[in-house]
Amino acid sequence: xxxxxxxxxxxxxxxxxxxxxxxxxxxxxxxxxxxxxxxxxxxxxxxxxxxxxxxxxxxxxxxxxxxxxxxxxxxxxxxxxxxxxxxxxxxxxxxxxxxxxxxxxxxxxxxxxxxxxxxxxxxxxxxxxxxxxxxxxxxxxxxxxxxxxxxxxxxxxxxxxxxxxxxxxxxxxxxxxxxxxxxxxxxxxxxxxxxxxxxxxxxxxxxxxxxxxxxxxxxxxxxxxxxxxxxxxxxxxxxxxxxxxxxxxxxxxxxxxxxxxxxxxxxxxxxxxxxxxxxxxxxxxxxxxxxxxxxx
Length: 296
Description:
This protein is an alpha+beta fold. 48% of the residues lie in helices and 19% in strands.
């Protein structure tokens, strides 16, 4: 039975982060679950079956991958299989827009903004597998983050945020290097930029996003931004943002305990009436009516 994990079970709002290293084998009962946070997984050792969105993939030592909010997955084991993994859970708000803008690194985060939004075949048949110095560096960064998280000495939260950015840049370098060498996935520069912007919207849909903030983060003019998104995505950046938010709202409405007014706020709309009108225009019925079609 699928289970949806809330962020409040693991982390607080002020510092939305949680991390743990653990081992599992066939004695663990596989429970398919989804969650409202981002999950970054690094397989330290062993081998297992990863059940992801209805498909099964073998994962082994050195694999690193991201599970997005709302995606259903679980681990299963055959015979003597077992794995040791490091789980890093966080809300996208951990990596703040202002910090990205100040550091000028929006083009260096493709493992966070591009790779996790490829189709599942591309993501898991061509996932990162680290070995040698790369695996050693990955472990050093993650172990330093775990030490900060465990001891919580003053400034630990700032260090973890910076380490998370360091980790994403490190993984993005390796990912882009693999992309350059691979003929399986070959995107042009404009398509990659559009995918980065889309990934940013997917990660931050619940925040206040304006054309000005996107222009500043991606160092592109407003005119070029909209022209790029219409060319690559078939719609303006604001139309794309609305589409992403409404899709997230449809998922959130599956929780009967969540009020429609709260769903509106969770997907970035301060005006519930505007949210309801927009939902009706895109989906074809109001949020409340949509919820009824799910549970009738």
